[in-house]
Amino acid sequence: MKIILASGSPRRRQLLEQVGLRGFVVRASDVDESVRPGLTPAEMVEELSARKAAAVVREAPKDGLVLAADTVVALEGAVLGKPASPEEAARMLAALSGRTHQVYTGLTLAGPGAVRTEHEVTAVTFRALSGAEIAAYVATGEPWTRPAPMASRAWGRCWSSGWRATTSTSWACPCAAWDVCCGLSVWSCCPPTDTEKENRI
């Protein structure tokens, strides 16, 4: 079975390699990432990961298994996207200072005849951040490549005073979910039964 990662994210490629997967194909999905109003963060990441997988699986070989993921950050239920300006990035980080936010990651596996989608949540607590720390991070330009709360591993681990769940969720893909999919070998030998199939391609 050929594994296809529907993402151009270097971190997601690295996570697959860390769980022992080699020889997979990277095929970034190009989809509209707007979502219906009123979705919860969990519903949003599940819908977007499923949409990314669907876009890639249409062109996948018959024996292909497509992995797609989507990640958002939420504070008190409100999703924080990529900031549009340095000032907005600084405001986001100031709002997170000394507080706990949630990182939601949706994961979709699209294989022969079936699609499985689920999500994981990591609660991350930032210690109190100084204005100088916030300004230094904003100056790196990273907030323009990811939501400001999803600081790089170096910055994020310095700032975080606590985690609940797997840190890999915050860094782009849920590791525990790989237990479901890393069942990749299980999937290839024993695809889901009709009663297990949540959606049909």
Plain-language structure description:
It is a single chain. Strands 1, 2, 3, 4, 5, 6 and 7 form a seven-stranded mixed β-sheet that branches. A hairpin with a 2-residue loop joins strand 3 and strand 4. It is elongated, with a radius of gyration of 18 Å. The protein has helices spanning 10-18, 41-57, 86-96, 131-139, 153-159, 167-170, 175-181, 184-189, and strands at 2-5, 25-26, 64-75, 78-80, 100-111, 114-126, 160-164. The chain is 35% helix and 25% strand. Helix 3 crosses helix 4 (131-139). The chain is α/β, with parallel strands linked by helices.
Observed structural traits:
alpha/beta; 201 residues; 7 strands; 25% strand; disordered C terminus; seven-stranded mixed beta sheet; 35% helix
How would you summarize this macromolecular structure in one to three sentences?
By secondary structure, this protein is an alpha/beta fold.
Radius of gyration: 18 Å
Q: Which structural category fits the helices and strands?
A: alpha/beta
Helix-strand sequence: EHEHEEHEEHHEHHH
The major pleated sheet works out as: 7 strands, mixed
Gross geometry: elongated
Give the number of helices.
8
How large a portion of the residues is in β-strands, by DSSP E? 25-35%
- Helical residues, percent: 25-40%
How many angstroms separate the termini? 17 Å
Mean residue pLDDT: 75
